[in-house]
Request: fold
Amino acid sequence: MTPSARLQAAIELLDEIIIAARDNGASADNIAKKFFKARRYAGSKDRRAVRAHVYAAIRRFGDRPINGRAAMIGLAEETPELQALFDGSTYGPAALQPDEPRASGSIIASWLNDRFAAPVDVKERTALFERAPLDIRLNLKKGDADLMGATWPEAEPLPLDNAYRLPTGTNIENSQVYNGGQIEVQDLGSQAIIAACLPGAPKLILDMCAGAGGKTLGLSAQLPDDVQIVAADTDRGRLSRIEPRLRRSGADNIETILLSPNQEDAALTSFKSQCDLVLVDAPCTGTGTWRRNPELRWRMTPKRLQQTIALQARLFALASTMVAPGGRLVYAVCSLLDAEGGDQTETFLDRHSAWRDIEVDLPIGRPYRKGTLLTPYQDGTDGFYFTCLEKL
Reply:
């Protein structure tokens, strides 16, 4: 492919990503995989160049562009070498016209600027677009630190037990230790939430928004085998992805339950007031994961944010009914917006007098609004807010 043809391919791929963001469709990574599968003629260098154009545009503009061409024209205004590629050549983009729409604005939509948690200042927000590291969690039931050192001597031990950081690009999924269940890929922030769940010697745990089971498996790996763990979610596709991970990890104390949206309580009736620990890793806007998924910004609107906040509040309240007296509730979001974090916790505590917040002792994170805040700039993790509450 010529450089101009690569730019045109990036425009076409951006068109699909923009539509998916508007309609809450597939992720940018999945769209890109499908896009290139249909274009076998594109070699590895072509794919890398197209992806580079696409993600440069995604990271640059906080507001969703009207289409891929507008996105690339906006980027080209700041990148002169791109302007020459709008040459009207065969397979390349048409020549630039003076009155064409073009993307503009800051890297974060203006309507979001005053919604971040107070500590997330300009330098903190800039770090949300740096490259994410590759963190792993060691499964002590199947491996140990010596195994890690023998497999990846370059692995950097992190502040939490059993947490390591590997060089970006390390081939994990083809490694013997991954396929043998000795390790799992997991951001250090997610591992911190698991660590916050561990005190209290729970016997029955409900992971109410388990997704693909990353935190469920993390809990199982660090608790005795006689602890019963229930992984529940409303997304059949995501929940089904826990099965191969269970087989790799060797965990046999995990049960999965598929919930019906808006009817979760019906499937969870038998757990009411029975659980020693309930974890709610609630659906959120994902502002804390922009390093990995920058196109999430293009999915956000004030309306969608309000819908998400309402869902979080409902799940928070529902989860509290599952906790036994003296038990704990951990509420977490991979978001740095106050409305999804501190606001939710303080509103819950104002409405539920039989609960108190518990201080969490971790080597990372900072106390914030009855909970803990983790950020890429301060902690080298994805962005998270979580709180640990006890039922009196």
